[in-house]
Specification:
The protein is of the alpha+beta class. The mean pLDDT is 96. α3 (116-138) runs parallel beside α4. The protein has helices at residues 15-25, 44-49, 116-138, 171-182, 188-192, 224-227; strands at residues 2-7, 29-33, 52-57, 65-70, 75-78, 92-97, 100-106, 142-147, 186-187, 218-222, 230-235, 251-255. The protein has a single domain (2-259), classed as Endonuclease/exonuclease/phosphatase (Deoxyribonuclease I, Chain A, 4-Layer Sandwich), CATH 3.60.10. The strands form 2 sheets. Strands 3-4-2-1-12-11 form a 6-stranded mixed β-sheet. It has 6 helices and 12 strands. One of its GO terms (biological process) is DNA repair. It comes from Ramlibacter pinisoli.
């Protein structure tokens, strides 16, 4: 099973890019973030024609998450991150896909910091930590995939000096990430590529894409049950070089589900 995450940065305006990627790479599951569209204008018909079922939760102008599945349909588990009933931002969607729990998330950016947006980022992260612990203890095979808006280490960015004040590199953000890994989750890219500079995001300024001045902020974390199934992981960087591209590139893992205990091989 190939599971990918992709911040599309506007699903209406970049639908051709999304469809081209789906046709060429054919992930079995695709977690999308930053739809920037209300539920009623989500391109369900176009995606269905491309061979994908969809669950989604939109929001006007901002945020929005979706889970696409090729072949069978996903079974929705929850549409929000537990812990704050008053939080109306569309940032979390969880579903069961072929016996795997897939959590699609769009962690808050947090800029400018310090300030209320950074406070919200950290409080959202605390809620995620609590829910992730519950998912881990469930012993279900789980993948948490999305735009985490965290650069885990200085190795995950082309040049940390000019980003030191950014919320993505703050010690508090990185400490939350480390606490999450401390629960036992596996960072798929780093497990298979521990010494390789890999980026998933290049902003639109100062020719950062052309110079490969990127950041790694899109991650797939695997539960213990899925970590043993990991075969490959990578980034479809060609997508970032297409006309009218998102500033993110799809990031993916390939899993051999036959390795799951009790599953037919």
């Amino acid at each position: 099973m190939k599971i990918a995450t992709f911040n599309v940065n506007g699903i209406k305006s970049r639908l051709p890019n999304l469809l081209e990627w789906l046709q060429r790479e054919q992930p079995d599951v695709a977690c999308l973030q930053e739809l920037k569209a209300l539920d009623g204008v989500f391109p369900q018909a176009e995606l269905r024609e491309a061979g994908y079922h969809a669950l989604w939760k939109g929001q006007r102008s901002w945020n929005g998450v979706a889970i696409l599945t090729r072949g069978g349909e996903a079974v929705e588990i929850r549409r929000e991150l537990p812990g704050d009933p008053g939080d109306e931002q569309s940032r979390y969607l969880e579903a069961a896909v072929d016996g795997i729990v897939v959590a699609c998330l769009y962690l808050p950016n947090g800029n400018p910091q310090p300030g209320p947006k950074f406070d919200y980022k950290l409080s959202w992260f605390e809620r995620l930590l609590q829910h992730a612990q519950a998912l881990w203890r469930s012993r279900h095979p789980v993948v948490m995939a999305g735009d985490w808006n965290v650069v885990p280490t200085d190795f995950d960015i082309y040049n940390p000096r000019s980003w030191r004040k950014d919320a993505l590199l703050q010690p508090e953000s990185r400490a939350c990430w480390e606490r999450l890994l401390g629960q036992g989750w596996t960072d798929a890219i780093r497990k298979l590529h521990p010494q390789e500079a890999i980026y998933t995001f290049w902003d639109y300024f100062r020719q950062h894409w052309e110079k490969n001045s990127g950041l790694r902020i899109d991650h797939l974390l695997l539960s213990d049950e899925l970590s043993s199934c990991l075969q490959a992981a990578g980034v479809d960087t060609w997508v970032r070089g297409q006309p009218h591209a998102s500033d993110h590139a799809p990031t993916w893992v390939q899993l051999d589900l036959g390795r799951l205990a009790g599953r037919p091989r």
